[in-house]
Backbone:
């Protein structure tokens, strides 16, 4: 899996938007002490459950692959010309 340009910023944006989406779906806010690893997995699983992203193969469900899926998801959500799409 090749690292994408702006991947760190895109992941941060995906977590932010993912958290907002989870709250609108009725899930509690993440505590300030919740690790990004937990947030990534929770948001990934919610998006899969809601069929907003395709699930990874069971043997490929690891942290880096989930991060990559979230980055791809947020890239599709951003409007054309957004600075992070560059």
Residues:
């Amino acid at each position: 899996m090749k690292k994408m340009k702006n991947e760190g910023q895109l992941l941060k944006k995906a977590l932010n938007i993912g958290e907002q989406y989870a709250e609108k779906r009725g899930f509690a806010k993440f505590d300030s002490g919740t690790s990004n690893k937990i947030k990534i997995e929770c948001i990934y699983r919610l998006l899969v459950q809601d069929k907003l992203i395709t699930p990874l193969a069971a043997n490929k469900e690891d942290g880096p692959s989930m991060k990559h899926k979230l980055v791809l998801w947020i890239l599709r959500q951003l409007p054309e010309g957004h600075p992070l799409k560059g």
Observations:
- The domain at 7-77 is CATH 1.20.120.1930 (Four Helix Bundle (Hemerythrin (Met), subunit A)).
- The chain has one domain: 7-77.
- The helical segments are 7-24, 36-49, 63-77.
